[in-house]
Amino acid sequence: MSDPDHEALYAAELAAFDGTDLEQVQPFAAITAVLQQVIDGAWWPAGNVEVRRTRADAGASSTRCAASAAGGRATISLAAPQMTVATAAHELAHVLAGPGRGHDAMYRRAYLDTVRVMTNIDPTDRRMGLHVDQLSSAFSAAGLGVGERSWPAPAEGTGSAFAL
Ligand SMILES: [Zn+2]
């Protein structure tokens, strides 16, 4: 699949989240729990998603974008070294944007939405727009545009401090 935005997206992701706890490796159960709350929540518009862990020795590049759809069911595969909120949000955004989008403008909109919801799902630790803003700024700095969503805007943590 042609995906010219691949490298730029990864660079923007690193610029946005490196040094934050979104890049901290966590237990599979913790990451799965956050993902499941989003998928089971009122906002999630993209159907069932299966989350599973891959073998520990799976290569980084193959697991980083491991969201796939088969038989109408999306699967996210996470490898131990990448068991982070950032990776989970990245993969969930592939499911939200739909297959064949690569890391295009629509994908990037989906990514901003999954980051927003995932970083505001814990009522005791809402980040509001912090991480969405970090990612949005990194996209802008890299000249990566963001498309219009074809799904409902997430209600959780939309806040009033900034508008997207
Ligand atoms: Zn990806």
Could you walk me through the main structural features you see in this protein, from its secondary elements to its overall organization?
It is a single chain. The protein has 164 residues and is mainly alpha-helical. The protein has one domain (6-141). The protein has 6 helices and 3 strands. The chain has helices spanning 6-17, 28-40, 60-64, 85-97, 105-118, 130-141, and strands spanning 49-53, 68-70, 73-78. The protein has a 3-stranded mixed β-sheet, covered by helices on one side. Strand 2 and strand 3 form a beta hairpin. Helix 1 packs across helix 6 (130-141), helix 2 (28-40) runs parallel beside helix 4 (85-97) and helix 5 (105-118) packs antiparallel against helix 6. The longest helix has 14 residues, at 105-118. The radius of gyration is 14 Å and the shape is globular. Zinc ion is lined by residues 65, 90, 94, 103.
